[in-house]
């Protein structure tokens, strides 16, 4: 399968050691209570989950989101400070990220910073997911300015223990300069029919496993192992696979759990503790 573009052939040795779950954004906690509760279960290999109230933090604090955020913070604290089963992936992750929509570079800088500050003040997020991030070289200076400011805001916040975490949601391979602007890049977001024949940009081989995230919908249960092999080969450290495909009234295939959630997380990390 053509998993690496260009003429090179690079196996991402060790990628499986860091594999964990990133949740690109469940539905509101009132609509997806099982999903939000599941993030707090010991043994879930969670790297981070994105909180998105109204394509951003909303106009005021949402009590249901405050409750969900508090539970995730408490679970992270227990894992990091030895009050949960020893699980290095779970203890190092479990962050809540605020959703910022860059609209491919068209949103004003001040508006984005205002949204970021609201996320920090209300929900004590430990980082940000920058969705619809520009991917071309000419958008890089503005993104660097934004991520530099967000890093400073997180450093001044008491919620980003161990440093904040920034994820750029390109959903494809951007100009390689973006790899130095954030902690992770989402280099694939789309259907299984595209993912199984996807190619990774050769420049990504210069970076350690875990700098990239892949979100794939429409993955049949029978192809879970194949999908994970692709992720490991391409050096993705954070993944979310689901059999939901956006049809039959599903507006967002990532808004709910896949039908095989327990099998999915057990394949990439410690089994769920009942």
Keywords:
alpha/beta; disordered N terminus; 274 residues
Question: Could you please describe the fold and organization of this structure?
Answer:
30% of the residues lie in helices and 18% in strands. The protein has eight helices and eight strands, in the order βαβααβαβαββαβαβα. The chain has helices spanning 33-38, 63-80, 88-92, 109-123, 140-155, 192-195, 224-233, 261-268, and strands spanning 20-23, 46-51, 95-101, 127-131, 165-169, 184-191, 212-217, 236-242. The chain has an eight-stranded parallel beta barrel with strand order 1-2-3-4-5-6-7-8, surrounded by five helices. Helix 4 (109-123) links the parallel strand 3 (95-101) and strand 4. Helix 4 (109-123) packs parallel to helix 5. The longest helix has 18 residues, at 63-80. The model is unreliable at 1-17 and 85-92 (pLDDT under 50). InterPro entries: Spherulin4 (IPR021986). It comes from Streptomyces argenteolus. Pfam families: Spherulin4.
SSE layout and pairing:
Blueprint: E1 20-23, H1 33-38, E2 46-51, H2 63-80, H3 88-92, E3 95-101, H4 109-123, E4 127-131, H5 140-155, E5 165-169, E6 184-191, H6 192-195, E7 212-217, H7 224-233, E8 236-242, H8 261-268
Parallel strand pairs: 1-2, 1-8, 2-3, 3-4, 4-5, 5-6, 6-7, 7-8
Helix pairs in contact: 4-5
Structure described in brief:
The chain has 274 residues and is α/β, with parallel strands linked by helices. It has helices at 33-38, 63-80, 88-92, 109-123, 140-155, 192-195, 224-233, 261-268, and strands at residues 20-23, 46-51, 95-101, 127-131, 165-169, 184-191, 212-217, 236-242. The model is unreliable at 1-17 and 85-92 (pLDDT under 50).
